[in-house]
Design a protein that fits this description.
The structure holds two protein chains of two kinds. By secondary structure, chain A is mainly α. Helices cover 77% and strands 0% of the residues of chain A. The longest helix of chain A has 31 residues, at 3-33. Chain A starts with a helix and ends with a helix. Chain B is 77% helix and 0% strand. Chain B is globular. The chains are: A mainly alpha, B mainly alpha. Chains A and B meet through α1, α2, α3 and α4 of A and α4, α9, α11 and α12 of B.
């Protein structure tokens, strides 16, 4: 080839190679802005599972557009394991599914529930149980990072905190994030909104619980359950709560004790939570902790009581240690 | 230029006469049409499954067609000795190559268009509505395949059939993960938290490795630009500006590869 011809080919080639750089940068920025980048990044994977990151990335590349399909096929496999009782074998498959298709909401939802509920039930000690609940919540949080607009995952995480870990503040936080995303239609029960109210009742934060139930009246979906809740809370808890806030603890405790004597409230969870809170604010953490510990033994379903009993036990131990010379 | 167009039409007609082409093409159409039958394994996510399965089929089978046709273009002409006849005519080598590329592009266009229309129809049936993002994804997959075809054609000017196919497929895989190459080459921009502490203790070998990765990144086609699955799955938007930029990138890269092919082909002796 003549050198002139070669030059006429090489020069535009060099110019085109240089031009594609800024164009690529512009495309990359736009893909970032409009969230078109694939959710699985090799270094994000590395931070999650360093030993497998490169291998998984290569397998994902080879699968190409069939990653989502492969995830669904593995989902069938995990279902097979579920029905045959191989619960621990489900975990690596679910992990692989969530990597192959991080937008597969159900996989995150079921994986988090499976760890926090089913594997927790298999645990031998309380520490193991708490560990499984914590891991289940971590899985759901990771799923939310990939799918921040998923009501299903946000609600499930809030529910797991409410029902299993007992950390009601966390439960409220996730329920509040889920609330605007709920696919609500007229006539439906506003589940998320009601769960926030229930969580406030047990936190307890009576004014916020009351406000949440009352807020529901403003919306056209008002279902009537709110009216009952507002009446009950006003009748039973508003006065003791106000007395507590005014520092009249003895009067507040006396009112709560009278409520506990009523047969229909003998097994009431909220009464005990409010009573414990009054003692706590009074400075008597020991009595508050004892109330929650006793109640958590009687009612194993009240995760909030169990959580508070453990937390306050730990605080008391720390206080005792500080007092020792 | 007219001779280039004649070569293009001839290449297209030759391509669609091949049995291999029809076997793969028809199989792809059957796979896409039956996507809805398998969507039952993903309850609640049927339209995402249909999209994944359909677009995956277009990419996979489209790549098979494009790589095989592109990789065999020049070697088959050499094998049949028809290349001597063609080049002895007043046809410049670059016209011959351009004609081959245009023929391959036309074949890819017809293939992707047929598969794409079927996918859009099946997806619209499952989703009970037309999704413009699916249409944009099909258009982008055409340009993605065009780049791979251009690379296969460029490789075929010098390499053997086996080498051409392996090379084109390898470039496809590396190009599909080009953003990962950049992430590995510049981890300080991506690693946060505890693991960031380890970045300070890297050796010169790691720096050299990152340099190699970055070099590879600059030269491989960034095929993941054409992946807009996230928009379909999350019901987001693929802006027209991004679409146009990706198309421009595709055409630009094809031009780069063609110039390289012409440079390689000009001095080739038969």
């Amino acid at each position: 080839m003549k050198s002139l011809t070669r030059f006429c080919l090489v020069l535009p080639l060099a110019l085109l190679i240089v031009t594609q750089g800024p164009l690529q940068s512009r495309i990359h920025r736009q893909r970032q802005t409009y969230k078109l980048l694939p959710p699985v990044d090799v270094l994000v994977l590395y931070q999650l599972m360093p030993a497998e990151a490169i291998t998984i990335t290569l397998i994902g590349t080879m699968l190409g557009g069939f990653r989502g399909v492969a995830a669904k096929m593995l989902w069938l496999k995990s279902d097979e394991y579920w029905h045959s009782g191989r619960w621990y074998s489900m975990l690596p498959i679910m992990r692989t599914i969530t990597w192959l298709d991080p937008n597969f909401i159900q996989a995150w939802d079921i994986a988090g529930w499976h760890v926090a509920y089913n594997l927790r039930a298999e645990a031998k000690t309380e520490e193991q149980q708490d560990e499984y609940v914590r891991k289940g919540c971590e899985i759901l949080e990771e799923g939310i990072r990939w799918n921040p607009k998923s009501w299903q995952l946000l609600f499930q995480l809030g529910w797991t905190h409410y029902d299993k870990s007992g950390n009601l503040e966390e439960a409220i936080k996730w329920f509040k994030l889920a609330r605007p995303l709920e696919d609500w239609k007229p006539g439906d029960l506003p589940r998320t909104h009601h769960m926030i109210a229930h969580a406030y009742e047990r936190l307890p934060d009576i004014p916020k619980a009351l406000k949440t139930w009352k807020d529901d009246f403003k919306y056209p979906h008002f279902c009537g359950a709110n009216k009952g809740a507002v009446e009950t809370i006003t009748e039973r808890y508003v006065i003791p709560w106000k007395l507590m806030e005014q520092g009249q603890y003895e009067k507040a405790i006396s009112l709560m004790d009278k409520l506990l004597e009523k047969p229909e409230l003998r097994h009431s969870s909220i009464v005990r939570h409010v009573l414990a809170e009054i003692y706590r604010r009074m400075g008597d953490l020991e009595t508050a902790q004892a109330i929650m510990e006793e109640w958590s033994k009687k009612n194993k379903l009240d995760a909030g009581a169990r959580y508070k009993a453990k937390l306050w036990k730990k605080l008391l131990a720390e206080q005792k240690q500080r007092k020792q010379p | 230029m007219r001779s280039g167009l004649v070569i293009a039409m001839n290449t297209f007609q030759e391509a669609i006469r091949r049995k291999f082409f029809w076997v793969v093409f028809l199989f792809a159409l059957v796979a896409i049409a039956s996507a809805n039958l398998f969507s039952g394994i993903a309850p609640g996510e049927e339209k995402v499954f249909v999209f994944d399965f359909g677009l995956g089929s277009i990419t996979l089978f489209g790549m098979l067609i494009v790589v095989f046709l592109g990789a065999t273009m020049i070697p088959s002409e050499v094998e049949r000795r028809t290349i001597f006849t063609i080049l002895s005519k007043p046809v410049k080598r670059w016209q011959f190559l351009l004609g081959k590329f245009l023929g391959l592009s036309l074949t890819t266009l017809v293939t992707v268009a047929a598969m794409g229309i079927l996918l859009i129809a099946v997806h619209a049936y499952v989703a009970k509505g037309f999704d413009a993002n699916v249409c944009k994804a099909v258009i982008l997959s055409f340009f993605q395949l065009l780049i791979v075809g251009a690379i296969a054609l460029a490789a075929s000017t010098r390499g053997s059939l086996a080498f051409n196919i392996v090379f084109a497929v390898l470039i496809y895989f590396v190009g599909s993960q080009s953003s990962s190459l950049l992430t590995l080459a510049e981890p300080e921009k991506h690693i946060v938290g505890e693991r960031a502490q380890h970045l300070e203790t890297v050796s010169w070998k790691v720096y050299a490795f990152r340099g190699v990765l970055k070099t590879i990144y600059w030269f491989v086609p960034h095929l993941d630009n054409f992946d807009v699955r996230q928009a379909v799955v999350t019901e987001g938007v693929v802006p027209w500006q991004t679409l146009v930029n990706c198309i421009l990138y595709g055409l630009l890269y094809c031009l780069i590869v063609l110039l390289v092919a012409i440079l390689l082909f000009q001095d080739q002796e038969f």
